[in-house]
Amino acid sequence: MDLDVFVSAHRAEWDRLDALLRRQRRLNGAETDELVALYQRTATHLSLIQSSAPDPQLTGRLTRLVARARSAVTGTRRASWRDATHFLTHGFPAAVYRSRHWWVPTALLSTLLAVIIGWWIATHPEVQSSIAAPGELRELTRPGGEYETYYSSHPAASFAAQVWTNNAQAAAMCLVLGGFLCFPVIWILFQNMLNVGVGIGLMSSADRLDTFLGLILPHGLLELTAVFVAAGTGLRLGWTLIDPGPRSRRTALAEEGRAALGMAVGLALVLFISGAIEGFVTPSGLPTWARISIGIAAELAFLAYVYVLGGRAARAGATGDLDPAERSATVPTAA
Prior knowledge:
By secondary structure, this protein is mainly α. Helices cover 79% and strands 0% of the residues. The longest helix has 34 residues, at 209-242. The model is unreliable at 324-335 (pLDDT under 50).
């Protein structure tokens, strides 16, 4: 494309669109029709320039012009409680459901890795000695030791807030860093499973695995599921960069990226619930069976939320992305 020729041919249309947008008075019917037609043509021009002859200054001008025209044509709307309800009942569960082929295998493989690491540590005293001195290990694993007092070391509300913040950050990093070809997500996931595996191994070597599971299962089922969902979604985002499928790479990344950002908000709410369980239920005086039952109930409720509500929304066409009317205008491009 000869950019100078293209600009000369269409500058008058852009100037006319800008003039219509600056009108202080209400546009009549003919002017409104003209505005819509010019908006559509200018959006097409912007797409052609971006794909064929990107020029930062011209692209910036046309982007602003298209955004103003789109606002004038479609109008503006404010977020409402209806939007939040729709997100929680359709957008978020549908996005998690659509990513199940990524996060379910991630969960299974990660759990297997944690079990293998735990077995390796529990059956190899030399590995245990490389982790800490014998006295430190006894202090960690003894009744009333650090593994047990960790969950009651701070006031429940403060501890729950701290746990929620840390886990939300880890989930957000998995979602955001997924675009870097998956490797950062795999590393974050490995670090999490390594920590779990070390706990399993050390407490098992002290014949206190039942105590460890009684402490970690009430909140860990939901917490780790949220981390697995974030990691699986991040891996899916990274794979989209490698193989976008029939969509252009830019379009695929935009769609999957918007859905991932929405999932970050939803997973923050899920982790808030798991943090509350960890802060108030795990260190409570409830019997172990009662605490584990609460954790299982929370996990089953989340899975039902995803597979029943999310599955229904996904089959109805929900993806977790913005509604078509809220996305930037695009035109078809050649493969």
